[in-house]
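anyone else get weird line breaks when pasting these?? whatever heres mine. first is seq + tokens for prot A
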Amino acid sequence: MKKNIKKCFPLFMLPTFAAFCIGFIWPFLQGMYLSFCKFTIPKDAEFIGLDNYAKAIADPGFRYSFLYTAAFAVVSIVFINLFAFAIAYLLTQNIRGANLFRTVFFMPNLIGGIVLGYIWSMIFDGILKKYETFLLAETRYGFWGLVILMCWQQIGYMMIIYIAGLQSIPEDMIEAAKIDGASRWQTLVRITIPNVMSSFTICIFLTLTNSFKLFDQNLALTGGMPVKFTDAGTTVNTTEMLALNIYKTFYASAKTRGLAQAKAVMFFILVAVLALAQLRFTRNKEVQQ
């Protein structure tokens, strides 16, 4: 029976593989090619070499968005994983109503980013109104607004992953630590955290990629505003992240679509390199149970 299944394996894989090639591989390769072209629609693409990449690197708005996104990603990764692990640890200590709290913390992840952006913009403006200012008045307000929104949405999801990791730790290891006289802090640092490094690997990977790919929340909450002038006389949207910068470049003019495509390819390479480096680093810290 196993031999018959192996013989039919390519037949069952063919529809899925074909869909993957049509829906991902071909568009990806076409997008790579268009990044070297000047085009309005793909059929009118004219190959121009590395001009789009040169313009992308020289674009002050793109460089600023990269630095802004990197800072946002670092802060989000630290806060989300710190709070998610702390909440997961508390909810695995046999407290009353733990399942209810898990549900409540997870629920924000079910709300769409656009909706969250508009809701939180009203909340922040209502709070800042007391101080006679508003969300888009200063860059720092938009930055921390995005961080709070991202944390509120993502902490519950990462909490579930950490809970799964904490519950997979063998009980005999915890009991042995108690018998040896280890304090709760020593047990947490020496036993618990090393044994949930696989959960840290997954959560850091997800928060890293989600932070760099953030688009809909950025669009709804700040839209990249406010605007400031650079020394060269150009304007820069001070809360505009990479994904939103690429989106605005693409729809700014038919002449800038090749430039936007080049930015998208650079964006993909950046996120892929960072994600792979993070996976390699954190996997080396994992403990085999």
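and prot B, same format (seq, then tokens)
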Amino acid sequence: MRIGILGGTFQPIHMGHLQMALLAMEELRLDCIHFMIDRIPPHKTAARGANSRQRLRMLRLALNGHPNLIANDMELKRRGISYTADTLEQFAAQNPAAEVFFIIGSDMLRTFLSWKEPQRITRYCSLVCIRRKGQEGMENAAASEIERKLNARVILLRSVLELSSSEIRSRLASALPIQGLVPPAVEDYIYSNGLYSPAGHKKRVRLLKARLPHNRFYHTVGVMKTAVKLANDNGVDGRASLTAALLHDCAKALSCDDLLALTSGEERYLPVLHAEAGAILAKKDYGVEDLAILRAIRLHTTGDAGMTALDKIIYLADIIEPSRCFEGVEEIRAESELDKAILLALRRSIWYIKKKGGALHPATLRAYYDLGGTDEQQIR
């Protein structure tokens, strides 16, 4: 068998890692590739954010559906620093008939001779380097030096998507979207656990997750992802959008009696009282003091006249997040202008409430007319 090994901390795994593996599979006709997740990396300080269990879980989620890509936790089970020479010796003993290809990036190729026992490493494998654009000369020189000094085999492959885990972590810490940069299941896992997020966010995620039913929390994850993207598209503070999106439904698990007792609302508007209650709980239980965030939570079901951009983002994100599948949602999603999308959503909401014979909240009408809506009696 021809087996590839791609090592790393995978903090987190991203699309660049997958592209590296798939390129190597194709170019080298490999039977499979083991993603070797390390416990303690020898060449750099381990990045904080996800523990070993979480990193392994993300790796398995990313590789699901790729039967020839294997999550290998060999190094996690060993104590101490994850030295490549030890790993390859152990792997060779377990796979004595395999031809092994160790896949690395350009930066690692240039420093390879400084690794612990590089001669021992090349005893068990051929080195495979995925080129980085613009560094072809340095890679050629590094490969020649390794081949000459160690009598090793070095294979250079073309470049792939240039992306780093540190870039993903930086974007998440700044509440910027990562859609398309990591596999969708990994993105959901990151948001579900508050990984790599702004200060204080992870603790709130943990508390909310314990309080909401699974389906409601899954909806919240979708709203967070959508709100962060909308904020980025519309020049709005991503951190505020992330917090408001996380807590917009924080009162959803309360009983009707608790909602009425906590708010100034009345029975006829019970379906939207969780929004007012959510703003109260966000301050009381989750420590949110920002009035703009609390207002966005309060208005996320009804809207109102004079909505801020943050108000609009949370209102819209709640309606168009990926799990929503009502008639007309695709038209709202397709509208790129924020105000026009909000108006479409308000129009649909008014139609639905009238169809069901429910009580239309006056704030919804104020929002509708404020954004240029026509006579609501004409809505069909």
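btw re prot B: The first strand starts at residue 2 and ends at 8. The mean pLDDT is 94.
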